[in-house]
Amino acid sequence: MNLKETFAFLEERPSKDCPAYNCPAGELVNLMQALRDQHGYSMLVDLTAVDEGPGHEPRFIAVYHLLNLETFAYLRIASACEGDAASPEIPTVSHIWAGANWHERETYDMFGIRFKGHPDLRRILMWDEYPHYPLRKEFPLAGFDMDFQAPDVAERTGVRIQPAPMAGGPFVASGEGPMSEQEPRAKDQSWHEQHKKPAGSGTA
Amino acid sequence: MTTATEQDVGYNSKIEGNVIFSTADAVINWVRSNSVWPMPMGLACCAIELMGVGASKFDIARFGMEVMRFSPRQSDCMIVAGTVTYKMAEAVRRIYDQMAEPKWVVAMGACASSGGMYRSYAVLQGVDRILPVDVYISGCPPRPEALIDGMLRLQEKIRTEKSLWQIKAGRDNPEHLPTGPR
User: What is the CATH number of domain B30-168?
Assistant: First the structure.
């Protein structure tokens, strides 16, 4: 069965495994409701997002993985977020699959995508006051230097939130020789927080 | 009357009566080191090994430490077993603050000791940045034997403490406070 015959607004999306379609954000809720009720995709396996990078249009794409529990067929739906890069938006599906609730909170936490109509859109992994969205492309892997979220604890212990650069990282396998000798290794372990990385020696 | 042989030197009630002379510190430390009540701060896979230590096969009860208390007010040794994220660090410190003195901290495993493999924007790079750690245990996670060894080292450390001197000098005397990076 080809979903495009039923839903004319769908576009096929390159995929190496299961069927995948792009869906306009405006049609997303209707499509998801129909897929669950009429097409047997009763399970939302995963809900995440893709950041295509600054300057890319559309920049944020929400991705939904569905599973039909009768035919065991997987389906991937991708939907570009509306709004500007600072505050992308997409409708919630948490009223269709209750399990989407926390997935959407996590996606909001990591990418800053606001799910319109979500009953309780708060951060779920990072603490509430955290000002960044860690899985956005401009977020440095090491993180940022900032005050600890509890001022009284910070005052007593002197703790700060410090960047943790991957010393010598990223850790990559050599790809040569037998697998036992391909353990991922840092290329340069000479630098860390106290000894800064020499300028122009690759990316963190 | 029998003569004292070498075996009687330690303690012989017939010679010395029912009185033992010792120092207050020795007695206090003996009691404390053999009745450590751990606070299991289980945050990741290290907690599974911690449970193994508490169960019958490794049986930390042999050393008087089986009384795991989930209330900080009833425990005196926090075993930080697992990855301390910045979000959790606040809770860890607040629980530590609620424990009664004297109290000790064991950093179990690579994550609690240094952040371990989590070189991450979200993970505290070593619990010693918020707590005065007494014993660090290596491993990812440490085997139960390693934890038991660490706890025995903690016992040794407790036995060298000078409690009365500490009271006299004041608890906040910087000379006595644990040192280490913050």
Answer: 3.40.50.12280
